[in-house]
Amino acid sequence: MLELAEARKLTWLKEGSSTIQQQALRDLNQAFQNWWKRPDHFGHPIWPKAGINEGFVIRDLSIRRLNRKWGQAFIPKCGWVKFRVTCEWRDIETALSARVTKDRAGRWFVSFTRLAPQIEREPTGEIVGLDMGVTHTVATSKGKFLDMKLLTNRERQPKRRLQRKLARQTKGSNRRNATKLAISKGDRSTQRLDRVDHDLIALEDLGVKGHDPFDHGHGQEPRQERCSEVRTQQVYPRTGLGYVPQTAH
Known about the structure:
It comes from Ferrimicrobium acidiphilum DSM 19497. The C terminus is likely disordered. Among the domains are: 87 residues, no CATH class; 76 residues, no CATH class. It has six helices and ten strands.
């Protein structure tokens, strides 16, 4: 913290809130502590890339409601900032903290953190396994198939055209920012698969990054089914339609 105080005197850091900057250092320290203690569970902390999901956390949260659609949150060094109410106000006013983020298109969002509500349900003792496939998005161990619709070639064309336009434009220009906003608005919202209600759900722990669809160096061609499965699971996270995490619980 002493180094931060010295840096604030001589650099642009003095323009920001010291409280938010100190909390960011505490969060970074906690992330490294978690990684050192349990490297099998926590990943190595990474530095965020400039312009991609930039943001900060507000611990001392102050909010107030203006009307049914709008509210205000107090941002240090900025004052009261309006935000659009998109959830129940009782969930917002009971929030413990908030995170302000900026996406690729330059839009600002505020997310409120609160305690998870208690869900009352009767234990069933049911156990199910989930596996991502080719013909069906998810197959359960009980023979049920959950399908997710992928983008067609015609639906991908507008985004590809905008991406080519973006590549030709000058970084930082107003036209480039407008194109980035058009790309983000064209993304389809995340689809939700059918609910799977069981006491224990096991997901396939498939290391997609470690798979080689072409099996180079083995002297034989891999089975077509295996190649299709690996390619499909690499495509799903990029479609913007949803993602089934490849971890085991």
